[in-house]
Design a protein that fits this description.
Blueprint lengths: L8 H5 L1 H6 L6 E2 L2 E6 L2 H11 L3 E5 L14 H8 L3 E4 L8 H8 L5 E4 L11 H4 L17 H18 L4 H22 L10 E6 L3 H7 L2 E6 L9 H13 L4 E5 L5 H10 L2 E5 L8 H16 L1
Parallel strand pairs: 2-3, 2-4, 4-5, 6-7, 8-9
Antiparallel strand pairs: 1-2
Helix pairs in contact: 3-7, 4-5, 7-8, 10-11
């Protein structure tokens, strides 16, 4: 998928205005003011920050994260933030330029995927011939362990920016970690008898989930939704689905369903929706719903 970053000339001209706002930076109604990128980042920062942090999400629900272009209003909001929280690994190609454009020298970027055990991508997956997307699968939040690491990174950044609230952030982190561990304890045993089994989905977003659950994913599109597969790739998917008695082809809400629906018809399978959480959905509730759908498809 070709990704571009464009900032209107008016936004560049507004740099002086952004800089003039620096006196208000980081404080809104007594709260630490921060900006976030995509849905999972926004939710984690909101959970850990609680009522001590004013959070503004930049990439709106329903938007494709890789193609997002900040508006003038987004840039003004960012200029007043103490921290810009991103997931990293190529999910926010606009972030460095946005930070530079604000002229806000003390704006900190906190990358929540930092320190994770990453899944390397094949050459064909991280480059589409027009653009190099990076070496690693960026969908770290689709692992429960990944969510915890993201929350730990959020807590560190918030505590550094607002040390007087560090204990509050730590308590929120512990509560979130306990919720995640409870969900993990419920579902890891349920998948134990399906080790090595595969499911077919619209795009390859579920690598970290599969590693955690002991599953395998086959996908219509790569991790960056690079477009429709070649006829050869579609034939391979049809053969795989038939050979492995795949009964469900999963779609994602933001991926085109056309090829997945064609694949389902070819192999006599039904279709069901998985939510990769990139744009919307409550983190733990949606993970639970995804798990239940995958389990049902393997029964």
């Amino acid at each position: 998928m070709k990704r571009k970053f464009k900032i209107a000339a008016a936004a560049l001209a507004a740099m002086a205005i952004f800089t003039a706002c620096a006196g208000d930076k980081g404080v809104e109604s007594g709260k630490l003011t921060v900006s976030t990128s995509i849905n999972p980042v926004n939710q984690i920062v909101t959970i850990i920050g609680g009522d001590k942090v004013e959070v503004s999400r930049m990439v709106p629900a329903g938007s494709e994260a890789h193609d997002f272009e900040p508006t003038i209003r987004d840039m003004e909001t960012l200029s007043k933030s103490k921290i810009l929280f991103i997931s990293g690994l190529g999910m926010e190609p606009w972030s460095d330029k946005a930070k530079e454009t604000t002229g806000a020298k003390d704006l900190v970027t906190a990358e929540l995927s930092s320190g994770m055990d990453l899944i390397a991508l094949d050459d064909a997956d991280h480059s589409d011939g027009e653009e190099d997307h990076g070496e690693y699968d960026p969908h770290v939040w689709l692992s429960l362990d990944g969510m915890v690491t993201m929350a730990e990174n959020a807590e560190k950044a918030l505590s550094a920016a607002s040390p007087e609230n560090a204990e509050y952030f730590r308590q929120n982190l512990e509560a979130f970690r306990n919720d995640v561990l409870e969900l993990k304890g419920e579902y890891i045993p349920k998948f134990a008898s399906y080790q090595g089994k595969a499911f077919v989905t619209g795009h390859a977003a579920f690598g970290y989930m599969c590693r955690e659950l002991g599953l395998e994913q086959m996908s219509v599109e790569g991790p960056f939704q690079e477009g429709e597969p070649t006829p050869k790739k579609l034939e391979e998917l049809i053969s795989f689905a038939k050979e492995n008695s795949i009964k469900t082809i999963f779609l994602e809400e933001q991926a085109s369903p056309k090829v997945s629906e064609t694949l389902a018809r070819e192999v006599g399978a039904s279709t069901e929706t998985l939510n990769p959480l990139e744009s919307e959905g409550d983190l733990l509730q949606t993970m639970k719903e995804n798990y239940d759908k995958i389990l049902k498809s393997m029964e």
